[in-house]
Amino acid sequence: MICQYIDSRKKEFGVEPICKVLSGAGVKIAPSSYYARRSRPPSARSLRDETLKAEISKVHKDNYSVLGARKMHAIRGRPEIAERHGAGHVARCTVERLMGDLGLRGVRRARSREPRAARRQSSARPTWSSAISRRLLPMSCGSPTSPMYAPSPGGSMWLS
């Protein structure tokens, strides 16, 4: 990510001045580290991840986008699929990580995954507290229905 930022700005400012400014801002990177990163070939893991991402997205799409990481791992572990793609065994945590990178999720049968606060805000029905506050707001202090008004045996009494 830092290398992408440096790539986008290096024609304007150069690599060394950008690295100095970034180091001053708390993101320490040496120009030699940048050049080493640019000249290094991609790792075996990143190459394998790219092939697995393509396969996972294809299998996810072919299965109506309902598979989660657990079932995707089970399908991925089938011998005919593993041999066809030559990737061999893939750990479930790897499938979870790659599905997260791709933004893929399985369908849940039960509750939704969004937090309770978001569900409460999105629901159209009023909550108990808003119903109480709406009931109390229209009342004025001078009406007999006001919570500040209490009848007494000798007449009415105001509680204030």
Tell me about this structure.
With 160 residues, the protein is mainly alpha-helical. Helix content is 57%, strand content 5%. Strand 1 and strand 2 form a beta hairpin. Helix 1 packs across helix 2. The relative contact order is 0.07. The mean pLDDT is 79.
Biggest pleated sheet: 2 strands, antiparallel
Oligomer class? single chain
Structural class: mainly alpha
Helix content: 55-70%
**What is the helix tally?**
9
Number of DSSP E strands: 2
Radius of gyration: 31 Å
List the strand order in the largest sheet.
1-2
Global outline: flat
Strand content: 5-15%
**Averaged pLDDT, please?**
79
Distance between the termini: 64 Å
**Which residues sit in consecutive blocks of at least 5 with pLDDT less than 50?**
none
Order of helices and strands: HHHHHHHHHEE
What would a concise description of this structure say?
This protein is mostly helical. It is built from 9 helices and 2 strands, in the order αααααααααββ. A two-stranded antiparallel ribbon has the order 1-2.
